[in-house]
Sequence to fold (640 residues):
Amino acid sequence: MGIPFATVYSDVDRTAPHVLESDETYRLGPAPATESYLRGDLLLDIARRAQADAIHPGYGFLSENADFAEACEEAEIKFIGPPAAAMRALGSKTRARQAADKAGMPRTPGSTKGLASLEEALDLAAEIGYPVMLKAAAGGGGKGMRMVTRQEDLKSAFETAQSEAERAFGSNEVYLEKLIDRPRHIEIQVLADEHGHCIYLGERECSIQRRHQKVIEEAPSAVVNAELRRQMGEAAVRLAKSAGYTNAGTVEFLLDDRDSFYFLEMNTRLQVEHPVTELVTGLDLVHLQIRIAQGEPLAIAQDDVRLRGHTIECRIYAEDPDNGFFPSPGKITRLLQPGGPGIREDSGIYEGWTVPMDYDPMLSKLIAYAPTREEAVARMLRALDEYVICGIRTNLALFRRILKDPDFQAARIDTGYLDRLLSETNQTMPSNQGEEQTALATIAAAVFESHRNAAPSTVAQPANSWKRNAREEGLRR
Amino acid sequence: MKLYIEIDGKTRSVEYTPGANAVKIDGVDMEADAQQQRPGVLSVIMDGRAWRVVLEEHEDEPALHLAGKRIAYRLDDPRSLKARRAHAGGADGPKAIKASMPGRVVRVVAQPGDLVEAHQGVVVIEAMKMQNELKSPKSGRVAELRVSAGDTVVSGDVLAVIE
Fold:
């Protein structure tokens, strides 16, 4: 679009990729998000200094913060997203549940207001029956969210959810809803201009989750047919219109095994997984967001939206699968990234980058696109084999395991799928292959170690390690 | 040159003649051609099959990335064996709760002198916006508490000692 842009950074992000690629960039503050990326006042100061016409809030931090959207409106800097009023009506999960009731959408049983006390939580949970979910009203990305299966666990879960919500979102409002058994997570992407047109861009299936955090997303869903897509899409559009929503947004649903869907929440922003929709619709969502924010009417009607092919996205995280998936920040000492036909990567890393401990552990989104789901899976597996990240632990191996699993390949998935897979013992490789690879690893280790022992690393590397070794051996004699 | 490499708890000897495409593992001849593509990235051809092996340097536990797997190894020598024995503590006695990741202490749940059950939470650490409760490895008394809320810790730091 040829629009020059400025970015912001905290001290630990001084050399982050987005800073290196910016036209202009400005320091926000120290590492903690509460002193940098969550400081709307500082962002607006910088926007004025940079003479910005608009702010794109991304998909974290202040992107769903109605106060910030309102502050932008007051400062006459266009917030690329919905108006503050629509965010207030839908962005809080509790108010969104009230809005869903008004729009006549099915939702999960539970509260439509924040819980005032532990007693209220206990009473409500007893009424609707365990298991229940506790969720931060301002939440997203699994933060401030706890599943509770027994009454005796509710107290500690309630306190942890409140404290996590307070720290992550600056609000400790938590509500409670009934857990739907083995649901699929299906969400509808909507796009609304400022002239009353609203369309849906098909669904994404995000059933592969761990700790309520999406791990793999795909579009389209293997179980959503044209009629179900139309029903869910029209319900999503109804909700968006009822709240005066504009710009990009996502309406999330749970789908049970009888094809009944329940409204879960609305994300009043662009989502992490938006690339899968971009690839199956051929639309650039950020581009369209900016056009909408400029006041242009949508150039496409509902009938123009066509879905082609299949897309899968893997969220690569800095976390250690062998150690309870604990975050694994640190320096990336070596990086080999995949490429080739049908592969897109949206990443925030490079070799030598130190992944800070202060933010979400997402490193990159690896996206595979192909004519069919089966081919997309094959492409993703090929790309995963090419991908190597050293220095920190990542969940790369987990994706290989999921994508090779017969249940995943047959799309027999629900939001509990990954927890069940992880509770099974990982099958070991066939023994002959294991032996060959162990021999290979032994040889490689010996070659690497002999280099390390023999030469300081400052020496230029000859192309042939055997030759170099021979030279070094010769010198020692 | 002869080296001893330990993988999966088993040590193998590796002998090779620099410049030749032959290697001996535990005295058995194998044909293997290894070429370094760039530092830390090795191309190995064995029985006509091509492999890429990537080195992850680490002081204590280097690892190799091979066919989508991460394989930790150890260069075995008498010194490291001794070091390992020294590391292995007894099953009884005081047990430390160590930080399993870098982060910030958000809450200390138990106080010095408190009696705790095995798997009872002692310290809550937050990193990358996730809170993780570190639990006691055994039933006992909190003998030492080395951190308080707000402290920054690095991986391996002792947070508390249970006796």
User: Anything to note?
Assistant: Chain A touches chain B through 60 residues (CB under 8 Å).
